[in-house]
């Protein structure tokens, strides 16, 4: 996947995670970073659990990155509270 596709996937996944986690996002740069790191985390979790990646290549990447970003936002909020 090219760098531009990573950025677009990261932006979409991070933005969606911010909305779902009732935060409204952290700004475009942090949303992209959360989405990219979330994509790595989601891919790791999906691989660990031997789950198939749903949808086509781009849609599947967004779904996996979104799930990973939601996990990442949840972890960061737990750490922030402590």
Task: Describe the overall structure.
The chain has helices at 3-20, 28-48, 57-81. The protein has one domain (3-81). The protein is an all-alpha fold and 82 residues long.
Secondary-structure element order, N to C: HHH
Number of strands: 0
Count of domains: 1
* Average pLDDT: 82
- Say what oligomer this is: single chain
What general outline do the C-alpha atoms trace? globular
Strand count, sense and barrel status of the largest sheet are: none
Note the gap between the termini. 37 Å
Task: State the low-pLDDT regions, or none.
Answer: none
For this entry, give a set of tags:
single chain, 3 helices, 82 residues, 78% helix, globular
Strand and helix layout:
Blueprint: H1 3-20, H2 28-48, H3 57-81
Helix pairs in contact: 1-2, 1-3, 2-3
Short synopsis of the structure:
With 82 residues, the protein is mostly helical. It has three helices and no strands.
């Amino acid at each position: 996947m090219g760098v531009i596709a990573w950025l677009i996937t990261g932006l979409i996944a991070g933005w969606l995670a911010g909305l779902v986690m009732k935060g409204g996002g952290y700004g475009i740069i942090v949303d992209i970073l959360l989405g990219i790191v979330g994509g790595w985390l989601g891919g790791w979790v999906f691989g660990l659990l031997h789950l198939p990646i749903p949808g086509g290549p781009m849609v599947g990447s967004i779904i996996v990155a979104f799930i990973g970003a939601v996990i990442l936002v949840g972890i960061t909020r737990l750490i922030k509270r402590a």
